[in-house]
Specification:
The protein has about 300 residues and is an alpha/beta fold. The chain has helices at about 10-25, 25-45, 50-55, 65-70, 115-120, 125-140, 160-165, 165-180, 195-200, 220-225, 235-240, 245-250, 270-290, 290-305; strands at about 75-80, 90-100, 100-110, 145-155, 185-195, 205-210, 215, 255-260. About 40% of the residues are buried. It is an enzyme of class 2 (transferase).
Length: about 300
Amino acid sequence: MATYLEFEKKIESIQVEIDSARAKKDEAAIEALEKDLEKEVTKSMKALSDYQKLQLARHPDRPYALDYIRYMMQDAYEIHGDRAFRDDPAILCYIGYIDGQKTMVIGEQKGRGTKHKLKRNFGMPNPEGYRKALRAVRLAEKFNIPVLMLIDTPGAYPGLGAEERGQSEAIAKNLFEFTNIKVPMVSVVIGEGGSGGALAIGVADKLAMMRYSVFAVISPEGCAAILWNDPAKVEQAAKALKITPTDLHGHGLIDDILDEPLIGAHRTKKASAQVIKAYFLENINALKELTIEEMLDKRYERLTSVGAFSE
């Protein structure tokens, strides 16, 4: 069954009526109710607070990386392991085709249900996950294959074992190495972009965010705990952190905002996958027009401009 958040309750009510009308094959009622649904979606979803957008980014029905891979890729083959320690299920690496374009897709996977959440470590990669991602990107470079990265993590795993195996070094190495990979790279935040866990697969020629995704240096819950020692101030923290695509685009920290359907990717998975696919193919074709030197120069300029300001 679909899950509805508190501010989606009116949408749920109309959807229940539509389902009932469809069961009765009442075409007139369906048409009228669909118009009501469209009006309610516009009313509800265009007046969301930053905290409500965070809730949508974490929505349990929101498509994860593996969903998008299945919708977008053909002849997909998964790549496992970092060739040093183990395979990290929190990071997926697939090679295959997107509309005939050979592609390497790297994504962070949260998992659904208790069993798969534990398997995927709730989408929090260990250092071997980031090393696997680097191995996949180098493989893509070797065979001149463009890379698509799908960001969706609350953050890199902060456990003792992860720190012992060099979590910070693995993230830093990805940041360094990805700047000089000689194939086009596109990164999209599909849900939650948490701190270094997101940055580690966020260095690309183009960085975009879905309409209802977030990107932050720390979770609003963590921020509220540190600054106010009060979990009740999570909504205030979400607003202060400027985590939405609109805020980040305004500050020049991301390149584009992808217009997933207004009702949200959790209600329109296939349509949202088409949005990502179209964005990726459009930018890959544009990047192919550049020489390798021009592409790397533009990537370097883009990265070094982050945080720049003038007085």
